[in-house]
Amino acid sequence: MSRAFSDLAFTPTVRDWQARQGSRAAYAKFDAPEAAPNDRLGEAEAAFVAARDHFFMATVGETGWPYLQHRGGPVGFLRVLDPQTLGFADYRGNRQYISAGNLQGNDRVSLFLLDSVQRRRLKLLGRARAVGPDEPDLLAQLVLPSTRAVVERGWVIRVEAWDWNCPQHITPRYTAEEVAALVDAAVERRVAEALSAGPGPRAAG
Ligand SMILES: Cc1cc2nc3c(=O)[nH]c(=O)nc-3n(C[C@H](O)[C@H](O)[C@H](O)COP(=O)(O)O)c2cc1C
């Protein structure tokens, strides 16, 4: 927990719930001025973001409905531009523009990043703005060199708060590449063990 996150997420009604349910006292220390603000990424958080191949981003529309969309791409497609700034390229997709439309009226985003192998998850709150062709240098930083899809815009997110989520109930899941690497390593280990054991006893003939 952190001061910035509790400032933003612990609304008066949330605090009432905590008080009634008995957890308010435990969380009060995060409101103290000496609590770590956690409003910019440290090294661990930046490395975690840079290693992701997907994340979820929530926005809020003008009717008040929250909206959650999955974003996926090559590892590192969610760029860490500096400790308080993330960004990613928005490619031409289903052309519903729900996130884009929501962000026009309300720039608040909630990002959820999950590492199913290490069983870690990070929550981020921030404000997003669109990056267009009038900012070519910034846009270029958001597009991975391997990309061939049509880039419609970029999104730059100014981080306002982050918080690590507890690892409970995360089922470990592995990508095909991660499974292949584990299998390769296991096979190499078995071969090395067999070679170092030398030739086995000869079969009687
Ligand atoms: C052909 C196609 C390819 C897409 N490729 C990606 C992709 O690589 N990464 C991604 O996060 N979303 C991808 N999407 C999803 C869309 O880009 C989606 O429009 C975008 O996430 C915005 O969604 P929203 O309107 O729900 O906010 C793809 C959609 C289509 C139809």
Give a brief outline of the structure.
This protein is α+β, with helices and mostly antiparallel strands and about 200 residues long. It folds into 2 domains: about 1-35, no CATH class; about 40-195, Pnp Oxidase, Chain A (Roll). The chain is about 30% helix and about 30% strand.
Please tell me about this protein's structure.
By secondary structure, the chain is α+β, with helices and mostly antiparallel strands. It folds into two domains: 1-37, no CATH class; 39-195, Roll (Pnp Oxidase, Chain A), CATH 2.30.110.10. Helix content is 32%, strand content 29%. It contains seven helices and seven strands, in the order ααααββββαββαβα. It has helices at residues 3-9, 12-21, 24-28, 43-50, 98-105, 136-142, 176-196; strands at residues 54-60, 66-72, 79-82, 85-91, 108-115, 120-131, 151-165. A seven-stranded antiparallel beta sheet has the order 2-1-5-6-7-4-3, with helices on both faces. A hairpin with a 2-residue loop joins β3 (79-82) and β4. The protein is globular, with a radius of gyration of 23 Å.
